[in-house]
Amino acid sequence: MPDTLKDPGRRAFLDRFRSGTDVQSRPELSAIRPPWAVQFDANCTGCADCVPACPEGIIALDGANLPAIDFNKGECSFCEACADACSENVFDRSVEPAWHLDITVAKNCFAEQGIYCRSCGDICPERAIRIPPQLGGRARVIIDSDTCTRCGACQGACPADAILITPHKEYAHE
Ligand code: SF4
Ligand code: SF4
Ligand code: SF4
Q1: Please, are residues 58 and 17 in contact by the beta-carbon 8 Å criterion?
Q2: Which residue spans of the chain are classified as CATH 3.30.70.20?
Q3: Which of 49, 54, 73, 155 to mutate to test the pocket of ligand 1 (most atoms within 8 A of CB)?
């Protein structure tokens, strides 16, 4: 554990940024780290400087006191404020894409059930979502994987909680 986290005052300060539902005590494979955080596992100290720096409020400390993205709180605007706030060798803004994430649409999508909904398509800043009609009044959500930046806007906007963005298995942080 980094020395900064052993200090009770510092610990109490960091607890304010903890996500309320996540009480695990070790890093999660499912955690999404900030964009461009390519040296995260090796160099993130859990100092939490990136947490209040995010203007979208989508970074919180997870159960291991490490910063994780929560797209249910908002979307990443790729403003780079998290990278600016970090004093360790964690971020490399020259890498593309900014992160390796998978995005899926579950069967409970309203459009796929025949209920009119275009919330994800309407909010997508990249116009990466098409929702062509299918037979029987249903529609199908199709995400262009190459255009999609994994900004997370559609996950938070989906009223059915059908969209899920997760770390690509190969790149999951341990
Ligand atoms: S790039 Fe900006 S919006 Fe995205 S996580 Fe970092 S600080 Fe937040
Ligand atoms: S917002 Fe959700 S429920 Fe609506 S069409 Fe998109 S994936 Fe389906
Ligand atoms: S995650 Fe991809 S599909 Fe969803 S809003 Fe962002 S760019 Fe569009």
Answers
A1: no
A2: 101-171
A3: 54
Domain 101-171 has CATH 3.30.750.24: no
**Exposed/middle/buried for 18, CB within 10 Å: 0-12, 13-18, 19+?**
middle
Q: What is the pLDDT along the chain (174 residues), one digit of tens a residue?
A: 444 444 445 444 444 444 444 434 455 678 999 999 999 999 999 999 999 999 999 999 999 999 999 999 999 999 999 999 999 999 999 999 999 999 999 999 999 999 999 999 999 999 999 999 998 889 999 999 999 999 999 999 999 999 999 998 754 433
Ligand 1 pocket: which of 33, 36, 77 to mutate (most atoms within 8 A of CB): 77
Cβ atoms < 10 Å from Cβ of 59: 25
CA of 153 to the centre of ligand 3 (A): 6
CB-CB contact of 112 with 58 (8 Å): no
